[in-house]
Structure formats: structure tokens, C-alpha cells
Amino acid sequence: MTLDTVKHANETPDVEQPWAELGLKQDEYERIRAILGRRPTGAELAMYSVMWSEHCSYKSSKVHLRQFGEKAPENDALLVGIGENAGVVDVGQGYAVTFKVESHNHPSYIEPYQGAATGVGGIVRDILAMGARPVAVMDPLRFGAADHPDTKRVLPGVVAGIGGYGNCLGLPNIGGEVVFDPCYQGNPLVNALCIGVMKHEDIHLAKASGAGNKVVLYGARTGGDGIGGVSVLASETFDDSKPTKRPAVQVGDPFQEKLLIECTLELFREGLVEGIQDLGGAGLSCATSELASAGSGGMRVDLDRVHLRDATLSPEEILMSESQERMCAVVEPSKIDRFLEICEKWDVIATVIGEVTDGERLEIFWHGEQIVDVPPRTVAHEGPVYERPYARPEWQDALQADDANALPRPQTPEELREQVLKVISSPNQASKSWITDQYDRFVQGNTVLAQPEDSGMIRIDEETGLGVAVATDGNGRYAKLDPYAGAQLALAESYRNVAATGARPLAISNCLNFGSPEDPAVMWQFAEATRGLADGCLALGTPVTGGNVSLYNQTGETAIHPTPVVAVLGVIDDVNRRTPMAFREEGQLLYLLGDTREELGGSAWSQVIHDHLGGLPPAVDLDREKLLAEILIAASRDGMIDAAHDLSDGGLVQALTESCLRGGKGARIVVPDGLDPFVFLFSESAGRAVVSVPRSEELRFTDMCGARGLPATRIGVVDGEALEIQGQFGLSLAELRAAHEATIPSLVG
Amino acid sequence: MTARVGVVTFPGTLDDRDTQRAVRIAGLEPVPLWHRDKDLKQVDAVVLPGGFSYGDYLRAGAISRFSPVMETVVEQAKAGLPVLGICNGFQVLTETHLLPGAMLRNNHLHFVCRDQKLRVENAETAWTADYEAGQEISVPLKNIDGRYVADERTLDELEAEGRVAFRYLDGNPNGSLRDIAGITNAAGNVVGLMPHPEHAVEPLVGTGRTDGLGFFTSLLKKLVA
Question: Phosphoribosylformylglycinamidine synthase linker domain: which residues (chain A) (predicted)?
């Protein structure tokens, strides 16, 4: 086969090209021709097709995501904002923290182990590329029904993949979520988050500048795996009629990634890196075009210099390959020898594949013949932007009218007790330790809190005790009922979780998982959710630092619940002051903070007892969330509380169960006057937490709540060996434990 | 005057920095050692930390035993240098035959990370002298290849000579024969175990216990005595 050079493309304008097979639309192909003034070469077509995919270009979501910048709150903490590999936040004492959450949904359904493993690998390289040492990971996961046979294939594979890869990197896994819902049956959500720490002066950016500087590709050899992963896999809907897409899933090698991390950190330490980009989705196409696009000049690359795992790969395939564990750096010529020496020390293959030029084009050669000649910005940043039509679905009104508050309720204390047991043992509310015990949460020796605590907390300075906390939350059921409120509830819960451990929320990242943008109903959900999130971030003063959009999450015509997952990052000046969730001291007083209303729409109770989804989600009051957070942080700092636990799905009874079991202590609870015991236990009103207050601090604590106007209701005392709801029922800790902990192992173990 | 403790980093080692910290907290001086370097820098003891050296390819610890640093470690261990192998380090010690037996995949086939109760069976080794025989301690356990096996004769011999250093309590987490969590050589200078004492040295992080600190203070006691 003749090489499709730029010259050849000029000479053969009418050759039929496989743009449709590569996932491009007719008008997109025409636009590429217009940009280049000729037909693209095969290599150029490959690059544009992956870079203009939904996954890389955000073409359907861009117009909505702009709000995150436009509505960004004033915040001095943001050092690097949206657009880079990950945002960077100032956490004080000269430290900066970078964090980001990303999706690896479709690969994880096709090949659960590798899909999930490479999801971890990809997000870790994103964090590394900012100049930071990765210090922790978290995984928000969503699967189909817990008792569905295919969940037994997907879940253990995903968990083993996350563990197998993450454990081998030496990164503690400190939190995340596991949610089951039939809507994710054919399209599980595997989101991965990584947190990294650096000093301010160590921030690195993805740009290639300085003519004559060398472009170095280092890490694993390039193979034929993951070709077209972003365009074919991540940007289309699954359809049974097409052949299986397993070859588009990448295969990871965590050992190689661990070497890459240590090698890269040493390169940073010695000041050898001018600009850096990881190779993830769209591989070299992405790395070269983004580096060149963000820099001052052009770039020339000799593609035949790339180290290959498979010598038969064509230049197009090399450009599209998503082989894992690779990075691309821009290095000054005088530093190249030392750069290569350090790579050799770590047994990492490194190759100079090109250099920065003073031109304006990205030029790629194959054995001396030019196969790419493009303006890099048109590949990386000036892709198509769609104003997709959106419309509130006609079924939305009926869904909201189907009020969960009208569902039949337990009539007797016995029935209430029975329903409590059913809810806390249901797959979504049950203990996830069977899963999280397969992740290393101790490595690096800085884990202050890890799952099932409200947020994961990592110490970043041993001397001062400075630490960061991160929580991730999302509730697709709430978002289905009202995407605007649902996104805000995810934000509020994550914010509350960070504050409950004593950390001050600073900034957020998000992973927006939705169905097909070509469906106006899905697009409406997306528009509403992004609007809700942007408004919420403005109200709470927590800017969006970056994130990820995952569309086409659906099976045939049926989309998943809209699932915005929000990760909130907080800072704590001294981790010695953190608040855990366990009730530990008998005799301490339990206070319920916030207002409990009759709010059962989208609740765990409505799902478990009635298999129902309807009505409205709990009301959002962001001013109240802010006040609650301030109280929780102050109480933690001043030693007024010994335990705190956020109230969310499952309501108060869920929180009490978890805090009792965590500390191995019971509680005696009194239902407050005027409150229905059922509503008291199961309502999911937002803006609430339960705290354990030492008697010596009671007055100081209640005075503070009173002065600030936060309702604080004394509901009981830490005591005994049972959770006792006075006048209603009691459940021994042994019964609670059996109900809460047996479910997951019995379903997927 | 304090003791210098070498901490080896192989490619794929994960707990080297944690081990250095634990050594420091115990009042000893950590000395980083690199796998390609035969020179042990005149340290008074060596720790082989946990991780997945060489990706655990072939078999956990199987490639590391051939690294230059191990040549010297084996040589000096035979001459009495205190050596502690934690998790992957224990696997390396069995591969070098400084300790008998081998580690297989956990019987339940999953990675397991948990707070693990142990009984110190031998409090006379270089790494356990600060404990009492029979003392119960809790330290994190985290591995997938943690099932200790050896032939019956070796096991009987280990038992008879008091060389079972640690035993799992409250449930065997991985199917290890005779609940063995760690063993020592006959001289008591080489000890290997699967659980991670270096993750239990500070009250705030990890499991919140400091039960693992004794490993490192034991060394000080032995070396200074």
C-alpha cells in the first residue's frame, strides 16, 4: 500500500476516505477539507477523527460547560483553572493540590478488569502531568441491579481492576461510591478520581515552546491496543447489532506506570521539563496537537522513531493508539542527556521523536515523507461546537406528580423496624467493605480517614499536620426527578461530607455522566444539571477546577439516569482536629442538625420498599448547607464534637446505623415531639448531620448553633449494645451488623 | 549515636518511604538503598519493604532476588546483619532462601486490606525484642499473595525451633498454613512477615495504632545492647 503523504493527498483529491467509519459526520469531514484546503491524508484524518470525537472535543457539552467559567465564584485559591490536564488549588503553607475525576464507563462494560484499571492509570497520569505527586485515588462506581447475573461479571472485574492497578501503584484508595440501579445494567459508570500534591513552584503545564526544544516520548512502547477508543467506544451508544468492540479497550501495566511516576517526579525535581502531557484518550494525536497548540511555535515529529510493540503498525494506527503508560515531554537540548539518563535509571524507554519549531504547523513525517501538515489548534481546540436541541421531556411532569410522600407507610413499630432492616441491608445502603477491603488504603502512610468515613483525608505535611479531604457524591434518582436540583444535591452532599470531617471545602471537580446528546430529553437533563451545578458552585463559593463529560451512556434508546458526580476538595489546617464518624464514647449526646421535612421523593426507602421513583427530590437550601458546614468545621476545630456523620440517602436511620457500627457502640434515640417516627428515620431532607457531643461541650455547642441560627435537636445518647428508638423498637448491634454487612458478599462475593 | 537502617527500593517498591518514616519515628536513621547498588553504605540493618517489585512478574520476589543489592544483603545476612522483609520483602526473603517456604495467592483469591490481629510468638529476634512472647498486636495486612506454605517437615521444624515469629489471630486472612504470619531464621537476625508494621507507628494515620513501632525499637535495643 502506498503511503498517503501530503503530496499524495494533493495529487489525489477525489480518493474516497473512511470518515464515517472513524466516527466523523459528513459536515465535519467537509470542514477538515476546508481547513486544509485539500483532502486530509490518512494520518490527518485519523488525528481529526479522534480529537473531534465527543470524548475529546466536548462538542455537545461545550456550550453548557462555559457556565462553570462564567459563573465562577471569586476564589483566590484557584491557581490553575479549567482547560489544563487538571485544576490546581492553593491549600496554604506553599502547597498546591490538583484533583480530577474522569469516566471510563464504556471500556469497563466491555472488559471490566482492563477498563477499570486503565481508568485509574489515565487519571493518575493527568495528575502527574501537572507536576504533582499522586497521593490518593477514589472510585465512584455505578452498576446494574445487584442481583442481576451480569453484575456478577462486571462488578468483581471492575473492583479487581481498580485494586490490581491502584494497589500496584502505591496509591491509597480512600473513598468513592458504589450504587446499584437497573438503569446502569448495560452501561455501568466507572469514574476514577486522583489527588496530587506539589509545591506552588512545581506546577507544570502542557505546552511546547522554545524553538529547538526536543519532544520526548517516554514510557511504554506503542502497541495496537485502544485504537479509536475515544471515537468509536466512548462516543457512541452500545448496540447489540454491531460486533463486539473489545480491541478498542486498552491493556494496562501498573508496574510500568509506577516507574513512570517515580521517573517523572525525578525529572521534575531536577528541572528538566519545559512542558508535559500524558498520553491518554487519542494518544499521540492528542499529546502532540495539544502541546503544539498551547505553545508558541509549531512542532515537527518523526513518527518512525516511536518505539513500537508491534512493528507492523501503520502511521495512522500509531497516531491513534491508546497504549497506556506513556508521557510526552518538551525538553531543552542542553538537558536532554540528563533526561535520558534518569529514564534509563528507572528502566523507562525514552525517545526523542521531534522538536519544537518556529513555524505554526504541526508536521509529522514517516521515514522522511510528510504525512501531516496541520494548524495544531484546529485539531486540539477548534473542533466542532454543537448547539444540540434540547427539550424538557413530556414525561417529566407525570414523574414529578407521582408523589413518593403518598406511598403507604409502616403502620406499627414492628413494621417500621422491619422496614429499617430492609433498607439498611439493601444493596445500596449496605456496607461496601467487601469491595473497599480489596483496595490498599494505608500505603504512603498519610491516610487519616478512608471509606466508609464521610470523606477521605490525607495528611500532606507531617510537621504542621496540613491535610486535604475529598468526597464524591451523586444521586441519579434525584437528578432524574429534577436534574437542576439533583446536580445541586450532589454538590451539597459532597460539600457536607467534606465539612463533616472538619475540612473547609475549597473547590470541585465533576464527572457528568449522561445519555446520548442526540436525544433532546437527555440534552435537557444535561443543560439543567450543568446550570444547577454552576449556580450551586457560585452560591457555595467553590469553583469548578475541571472535570469530565461522559455522554452516550445508554443501551439502545434507554438512557441512564442523569448522573452528575461531584467531587469536593477541602483543606484542614491540622489533621489532628479531624472528625470521624464513629460513636465512641458512651454518654455523649447526639444532636441532629438541620430541619427534617417530609421528603421521600427519590429516597432509599421509596426504592427499597416500593420500588418507586417519583415526586420531587429534597429541597435545596445552599445557604443552610454553608451554615451547617461552618458549624461542623468550627466544632471540629474547637473540639466540641467527637463524631459527625452526614445525612443523605437512607436518612437518619442509615447514619445512626453506620456510626454505631463503626464505633461498636449503641445509641438510645428519642423521637422529637411533633415528628412522625417514620419521617424522622427515613426522610432525606438535605442540609443535615448528626453529631456526638461530649457533655462538657454541650452548652458551648448549643450556644454556637443558637447564635448562628442552626436548628440543633437533642435526639439521644450514645449508650449500650443496641440502636434503640424509644417507644418504637430496638435493634442489637449484632442484628444491625448482620443486616448491614452480609448483603454485598452474598450477592457478588 | 543511633543505628543506620537501610531501606531498599526495587522498581515497583511501594512502602519504601513509609518504612523510612517508621525508622525515623523509632529514633533510627533511614538510609535509602537502590536495587542496582551492591553497596549497603555500612548500615546496621536492612528492611526490604512491601510493594510489587518488578511488577511481581514471574512470581512475587522472584526477579528481585537477582538484583545486585540482594547479593550483598544475602551475604551479610548470613554473617548476622539484621534483615526485615515486609510483605513483598518477605516474598523476596523466601526466594533467596534466607527464609524457608513460599507465598501463594490468598485462598479467597482477592486482595485483602484490613487491620489484622497477630500474636508475637518469638520475642527474641532482632526485630521483636521489644515485645513480650504471647503479646497480641494489630497491624495492617494488605496483599493478594499472602498464603504462607511449606512442606510439613519444614513447618514442624519451624514450630520446634520456635521460628514461627507471628501468627494470625481472629481468623486466618489468606489460608496460610498453621496461621503463620511471619517467621525468623535460626539465628534470629532475619525476619519476614506479611502484615505491615510500618503502617502502624502513628496514632493518627492508618489504623490509628502504634503496635508496629516495636519492630524498629527492638532493633535499637539489640544494636545498642
Answer: 20-59
